[in-house]
Amino acid sequence: MNSALRFDVSPYASFMQETKIDLGNGIQLHVEMGGKEDDPAILLIMGLGAQLLFWPDFFCKLLIDRGFRVIRFDNRDIGLSTKISPTHKPRIRLQQMGRFALGLKNQGAPYNLYDMANDVALLIDQLGLKQPHLIGASMGGMIAQIVAAQYPDKVGKLAILFSSNNQSMLPPPFPKQLSCLLAKPKSRDANTIINHSLKVFQAIGSPGYINQIDTLQTSRKLYQRSYYPTGILQQFLAILCTGSLLHLNKKISTATLVVHGSRDRLLPPSHGKAIAKAISGAKFELIEGMGHDLPPHFIPKLSSLFADHFQS
């Protein structure tokens, strides 16, 4: 670990410390970490528009208790990390969605997932990590696939959670989930934005496992910590402008576990199965009843699956 770094106690979890990491490419990432310095590291990569707090404290603590040093961070353009000012108003076009469905790249984003994967590689270097294991969720799983393919010497084992390789002709998100994700809050006041977030959580989450009060409190905490809708839009464009990762899956040689929820309506399970099929020797695990989220009910099972995979 880089001994020159200065840490403060996280305001969200007493067992985590936080700091800012300058990557040297114009980007600073806000990072939290917990666990013993000598324990093997797990780097958690979150998805579209999702701050580091989307990795629940409970999940991080269970992995720490299993003997890991756990690191979560805000991707560029989200949370407390560097925001990318757009040169023109970012827009998602129907043509881009069509090309993306065919596994094709698009133009018109200030950065793509390869740039975000480079952020992760630089973060590993700046923290002085020795081949950390990666867990990537949703868009973070796409980034993790690129890191494992392009920087194999920097990565231990790989785990992918409710993600996709965006190969052509995979089933699209269900209409309700996609429209909810793309919809804008009706106004800019805090309560409207927080209630909008609650609707998104309810639409994409695990049916029957969403605690409305907890979810509302989480939405409020995330809004108070950082609200930057332009970043969410630019991250969406980054996905659309990256295209299929199928050619990279063939290059991944590290032991890989792919986990997906049976009730995921944003990225249906066939997306996860496509990754597992494309990566040599990858294992696939379907979690019955889980959607596109990490509710407390599934966290003991998930943390155990990942810890067993990394320790095997």
UniProtKB/TrEMBL annotation:
Residues 40-293 form the AB hydrolase-1 domain. GO terms for biological process: glycerolipid catabolic process. GO terms for molecular function: triacylglycerol lipase activity. InterPro entries: AB_hydrolase, AB_hydrolase_1, AB_hydrolase_fold. Pfam families: Abhydrolase_1. SUPFAM superfamilies: alpha/beta-Hydrolases (SSF53474). This is AB hydrolase-1 domain-containing protein. It comes from Acinetobacter rudis CIP 110305.
